[in-house]
Specification:
Blueprint lengths: L2 H20 L4 H4 L12 H4 L7 H21 L3 H13 L19 E4 L5 E4 L5
Antiparallel strand pairs: 1-2
Helix pairs in contact: 1-4, 1-5
């Protein structure tokens, strides 16, 4: 088995390990919050480890396992491993196309608007 393929699987495993370590952390301590972007720029990277439910965490871990298996089966090159790593490091700097407003400043939070116009946050409905 090629060393690059093992590095690919290792990168996938590292992402799962990061998510498992962050599972016990209060999400608001590490999630993406645009208002804190300049004061706490590390949140652009730590937000990848935030999961709002066990189902969300399990689905992402299964996805990472699939990506690792595909990389092993395809015998990816070292260049592919570096490309994936660079993509992970640059994603926080790619505009999402989501307009900033009070209703969507925090990703992963379901916002419920009542008939009176009041907005409340409900994390229990996020998958």
């Amino acid at each position: 088995m090629k060393a690059a393929s093992l590095a690919w699987a290792g990168l996938a495993a590292a992402l799962v390990a990061l998510a498992l370590l962050a599972w016990r952390v209060e999400p608001t301590a590490i999630d993406w919050q645009p208002a804190l972007a300049l004061a706490q720029p590390w949140r652009a990277y730590s937000a990848v480890a935030v999961h709002y439910s066990g189902l969300h965490l399990a689905a992402n871990a299964a996805g990472a396992a699939l990506v690792a298996a595909l990389g092993l089966a395809a015998r990816v090159s070292q260049c592919s491993v570096w490309a994936w790593f660079v993509a992970l490091m640059t994603v926080p700097f790619i505009p999402t196309g989501v307009p900033a407003s009070e209703k969507n400043v925090e990703f992963g939070v379901t916002l419920n608007e009542s008939p009176g116009g009041a907005t409340t946050s409900d994390r229990s409905t996020v998958y």
